[in-house]
From TrEMBL:
This is Uncharacterized protein.
Length: 117
């Protein structure tokens, strides 16, 4: 279900479950699947070691935000632009990029009803 770059989201926002997020990542950003799997394994190991679900909850939030951004091509493109600026810019540009990236992430958290990053 692909649309124009500035059109509606590529897919609906999936439920915040590992299975639904994995399917969404596979569909809209398949190159991120290795990171998804690696980070899921790390979160599961941390949860087991600490008998605490917080690492899995952080994983779900992080990937729900990733999907929220990547399903909107214009927002994803803007984020990639600012990430590039942050990697190669001068001090002033890096500060501006950090602010823009923070705004994008804050807006994604707000849209998903999440209060923390």
């Amino acid at each position: 279900m692909t649309t124009s770059a500035d059109g509606p989201p590529l897919i609906p926002q999936p439920p915040a479950t590992v299975t639904a997020l994995r399917q969404a990542v596979a569909q809209i950003s398949p190159g991120a699947l290795p990171a998804f799997t690696r980070e899921l394994d790390q979160a599961a190991d941390q949860a087991r070691q600490g008998s605490d679900l917080a690492p899995l909850q952080r994983f779900i939030i992080q990937w729900a935000v990733h999907v929220h951004i990547q399903r909107q091509q214009d927002v994803a493109r803007e984020l990639r632009h600012w990430e590039d600026v942050a990697e190669s810019g001068d001090t002033r540009q890096v500060r501006r990029a950090a602010s823009a990236i923070g705004r994008i992430l804050d807006e994604a958290h707000e849209a998903l009803g999440l209060t923390q990053r």
